[in-house]
Write a structure and sequence with these properties.
The complex is a heterodimer of chains A (287) and B (298). With 287 residues, chain A is mostly helical. Chain A has two domains: 66 residues, no CATH class; 214 residues, MetI-like (MetI-like fold), CATH 1.10.3720. In chain A, 76% of the residues lie in helices and 0% in strands. Chain A is built from 15 helices and no strands. The relative contact order of chain A is 0.13. A two-stranded antiparallel sheet of chain B has the order 1-2. Classes of the chains: A mainly alpha (287), B mainly alpha (298). Chains A and B meet through helix 1, helix 4, helix 5, helix 6 and helix 11 of A and helix 1, helix 2, helix 4, helix 5 and helix 6 of B.
């Protein structure tokens, strides 16, 4: 009886093992394609010029040379640019979290005339190309005398951003209304419900919004390009781009500088990996 | 009592929404109205705008060759880059949606490029795409290509080079697909398998229909982003060679902030808006035919 049962079972095992092996092979092949640029970034940063331009190429820098990093740092005031960038990031995150959650609470839970219209405005805003508002906004900030300051970059987040309000609203809708109703019966006002019920329960969604706001501010280029006219106020993105236009063939130094700009984002990703990946599911993009 | 309560409710609601209501007025409504007005004006950003009627639009459509070229360049990025990105992100998400060991590791590697700062990844790709020493052509030569493309130095290959670089960053869309795939009930796939559907048939008739709202979301987001494609071209090529990568947003930026033709640039922005809306409407129109919402057809 075992003789009859065994062969098909074994064939099944082989089959699934072969399928798993094939899947891994494909995953590894793509993995190499996606990781290769990162490898080349680091490898080039660790090579002296002589090795960078050698043919056939030097695949593994030996020995790794760190001199490109201090050289890049001596050309670019990296510390200052990092500080400028961090300041903008922090204020953007604070502004976005505060204002977007307030507005999202209003749109998800409070009943007032015009609410639907305001919600529709959010969705419409997302389709509007930023180029349409670019020039009047620029002229407006210029008239206020804000050119060359970080204000045009950090004040707008305090007025909420359409996409984040939308995401937080979707999340607030999943929190049972019974909770806030119970609090209301106990005499809790809307502000109390927002502060003591909605915000604590929405920590994962808020973390996602905060994280992506931070990354977007860290990576932003067009904003700093338009508004930061003084090189003492440059962000990393802008500083790095200006650096390229001046040292376009010093690849070792450029790669070292790019490494230093990318590293914090990668570290942040590893620290908050679950927030990144699950946040996308949490905030309920579907539907 | 109820009237007072209703009024209070109205006030509370609007108070909580106040940041957006103010932002909508100052950062959306006013700029939209002003840019529409500027688009009919000669405006250099310093002197007050002067009404010139349809002159900006006439010049754009009839005299500015670069307008048409930049529109074509952007349409190339949208028409080629967006579908390729959608398909590869979907393929990668399907690969990652298997129950195998090490998935978190693969997912990390595929995802990281999408959060790499644009300026840093642009500089990295300038180096990778270097015709003589870049990793891409080293690889192609190793595979036997005697004369690999000149990429960013060759007008014919510069846009494909940007598309290639874009594919490296499809991790963002991929993660959204992955989230959507978690919602596809395993029971449905098993039922289809029991009925004798092969993997491809299950993909075509079960997974893809259930995933179609997510595909629509990624498509619309891809379109909106594609029409505003700017930073990579600005950093990597500055629009060259021979304006082959002068994308629409770059031409607009140069008109506004290099030549100070802000009225003209505003008119360009409105044309971009109209094109974007037309595309979005076309997508939503056809979406009724291919997007399936769970629980809708009951």
């Amino acid at each position: 009886m075992t003789a009859g049962a065994r062969p098909p079972r074994r064939r099944g095992w082989w089959r699934s093992a072969a399928r798993a092996a094939a899947s891994h092979a494909v995953l590894v092949a793509f993995g190499i394609l996606f990781a290769a640029p990162f490898y080349w970034l680091v490898a080039t940063a660790l090579k002296p010029d002589a090795q960078i331009f050698r043919m056939p190429p030097v695949w593994i820098p030996s020995p790794p040379r760190w001199e490109n990093f201090p050289r890049a740092l001596s050309y670019v005031p990296f510390g200052l640019y990092t500080w400028n960038t961090l300041r903008i990031c922090t204020l953007s995150v604070a502004g976005t979290l505060l204002s977007s959650s307030l507005v999202a609470y209003s749109l998800a839970r409070l009943h007032w005339r015009g609410r639907e219209l305001v919600f529709a405005s959010l969705v419409a805003t997302m389709i509007l190309p930023s180029q349409v508002t670019l020039i009047p906004t620029f002229a407006f900030f210029k008239a206020l005398g804000w050119l060359g300051t970080i204000l045009p970059l950090v004040v707008p987040p305090f007025f909420g951003s359409a996409f984040n309000i939308f995401l937080l609203r979707q999340f607030f809708l999943t929190i049972p209304a019974e909770l806030s109703d119970a609090a209301r019966i106990d005499g809790c006002g809307e502000w109390g419900i927002y502060r003591r019920i909605m915000l604590p329960l929405s920590r994962p969604a808020l973390a996602t919004v905060g994280l992506f706001t931070f990354i977007n501010a860290w990576n932003d280029f067009l904003g700093p390009l338009m508004y930061l006219t003084d090189d003492r106020s440059y962000t990393l993105s802008l500083g790095l781009q200006r650096f390229v236009s001046q040292h376009s063939v010093e690849w070792g130094m450029l790669m070292a500088a790019s490494c230093m700009m990318t590293m914090p984002v990668v570290v942040l990703f590893f620290l908050a990996q679950r927030t990144f990946i699950q946040g996308v599911a949490l905030t309920g993009i579907r539907g | 009592m109820s009237r007072i309560a209703a009024r209070r409710q109205q006030a509370t609601g609007m108070l909580f929404a106040a940041p957006w209501l103010a932002g909508l007025a100052v950062f959306i409504a006013y700029p939209v109205a002003a840019s529409l007005f500027y688009s009919f004006c000669a405006f250099d950003g310093i002197r007050p705008p002067r009404w010139i009627g349809l002159e900006n639009y006439r010049r754009m459509l009839l005299e500015d060759d670069l307008f048409w070229k930049s529109l074509w360049n952007t349409l190339f990025m949208v028409g080629v880059g967006v579908p390729l990105g959608l398909v590869s992100a979907l393929g990668m998400a399907l690969l990652l949606n298997q129950k195998l060991r090490g998935m978190a590791f693969y997912r990390t590697i595929y995802y990281l490029p999408s959060i790499t700062p644009v300026v840093a990844s642009s500089i990295l790709w300038m180096w990778l795409l270097n015709p003589d020493l870049g990793l891409v052509n080293l690889g192609l030569r190793a595979l036997g290509a005697a004369h690999p493309p000149g990429w960013l130095n060759d007008p014919a290959w510069a846009k494909p080079a940007l598309v290639l670089m874009g594919l490296w960053g499809v991790g963002g869309a991929m993660v959204i697909y992955l989230a959507g795939l978690q919602d596809v009930p395993g029971a449905l796939c098993e039922a289809a398998a029991l009925d004798g559907a092969g993997p491809l048939q299950r993909l075509r008739h079960v997974t893809l229909p259930l995933l179609s709202p997510v595909i629509l979301f990624n498509l619309v987001m891809g379109l909106i982003g594609g029409f505003q494609y700017f930073t990579q071209a600005f950093v990597m090529t500055g629009g060259g060679p021979q304006d082959s990568t002068t994308v629409y947003a770059l031409h607009l930026f140069n008109q506004a902030f290099l030549d100070f033709k802000m009225g003209y640039a505003s008119a360009m922005a409105w044309v971009l808006f109209v094109v974007t809306v037309l595309c979005a409407v076309a997508v939503f129109r056809t979406s009724a035919r291919w997007v399936y919402y769970q629980g809708e057809a009951r």
